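Lesson 9: reading folded outputs for more than one chain in a single document. The general rule is that every protein is listed as its sequence immediately followed by its structure tokens, and records are never interleaved. Here is the first one.
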Amino acid sequence: MYPAISFVLGGAAAGKSVFAEELVARSGLDKVYLATGEARDAEMAAKIDVHTARRGADWTTIEAPLDLAPALSGLAPGQICLLDCATFWLSNHLLAGHDIAAEQAALLAAIRSCAAPLVIVSNEVGTGIVPDNALARAFRDAQGRLNIELARAADLAVQVVAGLPLVLKGALP
């Protein structure tokens, strides 16, 4: 049995997405990529291109930078979804001035009711220095709260450091 919810956590450029893509590919299910990042500059556009090329043509991509519930509710058994990533999703809502607690509650409800297995990628932001500005501190705190709830909901939680997975909860399939 594949975990209903897998949570992949790690620092920036730690290998989270590659590890998560491998988890999804090993499932044997139809692969769906739920993208939350937006190409707001050339650097991000290049990063998106690298991720897209690495996944290949056998993935269905859904772009949903803000409203994940319709995409998650549209998934079916026989599919598996990689949500990459919760950090961009949170940033998008924070920058838009949305009610983060309400958005988080809606996301968690959509995740729990999803018919397909999910692999959710998120950044660990709590191991660095205390940010010097209010927006950065608000983001760090909100990301920490979101990560706690995602880990709580997950059947499998894995931290990726330097490309190496460390299972925090559950067992790798």
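And here is the second record, again sequence then tokens.
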Amino acid sequence: MALLNLTHKSQTLGKQTNVIIMLPDKIEGQLKILYLLHGLSDNYEDWLYKTTVYRDVLASGKLAVVCPDGGKSFYSNMKGSHRYYDYISKELPEFVEKLIPTSGKREDRYIAGLSMGGYGALKIAMKNPENYVAAASFSGVTDVKYRYSISSFDMSAIYDGEIPDDEDLFYLAKNLNSAEIKPEIYQWCGLGDFMYEDNVKFRDLMNTLDFKYTYEESEGEHTWVYWDKQISRVIELFKL
């Protein structure tokens, strides 16, 4: 596997930021690209060091994996500060896909994440369905308004008061339901995960909507042991 660990100046963030790119040793033709988003207590390097996703990159031979630094932003534009949503959804793909051989087409672009990153992946894909063919969430923060209301997470640096509707996955899914173009969605949560009830609630909504949608659950908690298995599952499911 070839590994790029880059620092670059982001215009939307207004600062230097980091991104890891995993590539197959031998590149023939255009690659599919998977953006992997980390969780609230993690960082952009953890997908490389805490999972075996690099083996999937090697085995595939046609996949690039991109792991950006999302800080503690919930992949949102933070009030009066860094615009992480704009960076991850727009600036980053434009930057990365000029560096490596990808088609730049929707059908070759995927996004996934864990916990906070699962929320970010679903939000970005549903707000930009023309750009992402599929998205996956592992132990995702699927009910961000509820978590905010019970003070599970400190989002005071992100939102000024209530979370807007267009940051809520339930609102986004219902709003997108009648659209002609929608991303395929994969969702997993462990039975022992503290996010399990939130994920079941989102699953129940998605099962009433017209998405290509797969929900899976199994024994598991909010740990990397299970997320490692899930990234391999997604690569298999999406045929990456």
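What the second record shows: Residues 84-99 form the longest helix (16 residues).
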